[in-house]
Design goal:
The protein is an alpha+beta fold. It has 3 helices and 13 strands, in the order αββαβββββββββββα. The radius of gyration is 21 Å and the shape is globular. The two termini are 14 Å apart.
């Protein structure tokens, strides 16, 4: 059986670390269904205060930088539906803030299909445009902020464990481009060094947060360092 060299093993460990860092937010503009947009899903790391001992509520911000969308989908003019999934056990959900005001949107349990919010998909909550016009205009940075109540301890916090969806439309309200449907990492914005608050818009499309490596990436980094040290000692001692 062929034995890998210590250099090959270190390279493999490095690739594993890089793959873990690549999973972190934000995603886009070149992910499979991103349509040139940049997407960030974040929260501040703590549950909102309440008296419910069985459930906890988190304020989740979906931030979309749409400034690059028309370069990929020239006919796109608006977004008329977005959906997030941060748990499998949604007890209740409300829309705290949204482009053009929360009165412009209806919150529908379920995800999005080609025709818009469809009521299907366990754990998803979908904001559906109900105001006049075809949707909220794109071209800048947009924030949807959801208050999602769930069973205690049920929040998705692992790499690529959460999901987002979005539907772009043209001036007639017809779907254009890909239906955005991507796995995403829910980011903890409490470590932000920018001084911004969760949900504040920035030109970079990151809601004032600083993307940070996920926990599994740090584990791989530590393992890679240990492996490199061990193999280099074996080589120095003349053993193979």
């Amino acid at each position: 059986m062929k034995t890998l060299s210590w250099k090959s093993l270190i390279a493999a460990a490095g690739l594993a670390v890089l793959s873990q860092f690549a999973a972190a937010d934000p995603i886009g503009p070149n992910c499979p269904t991103c349509n040139g947009g940049i997407y960030t899903l974040s929260y501040d790391g703590t549950a909102l205060a309440d008296t419910d001992t069985a459930h906890e509520t988190f304020r989740i911000t979906l931030n979309i930088d749409t400034s690059g969308v028309t370069a990929v989908v020239p006919t796109a003019t608006a977004i008329d539906a977005v959906a997030i999934k941060v748990t499998n056990s949604v007890f209740n959900a409300t829309l705290f803030s949204a482009p053009d005001g929360t009165a412009s949107w209806a919150l529908v349990p379920g995800g999005i299909s080609a025709i818009g919010c469809d009521g299907n998909g366990s754990g998803f909550d979908c904001a559906d445009w109900i105001a006049s016009g075809v949707g909220t205009a794109i071209g800048g940075t947009l924030d949807w902020i959801f208050d999602v109540t769930m069973d205690n301890g049920a929040l998705f916090t692992l790499a690529d464990e959460a999901s987002i969806k979005a539907r772009y439309v043209d001036s007639s309200g017809a779907k254009v481009g890909d239906l955005v449907s991507e796995a995403i990492t829910l980011q903890n914005s409490s470590s932000s060094t920018s001084g911004g608050t969760s949900g504040s818009s920035t030109s970079g499309g990151t809601s004032g947060t600083v993307p940070e490596p996920n926990s599994s990436g740090l584990v791989f980094l530590g393992l890679g360092a240990v492996l490199a040290s061990f193999l280099m000692r074996r080589r120095a001692s003349g053993t193979h």
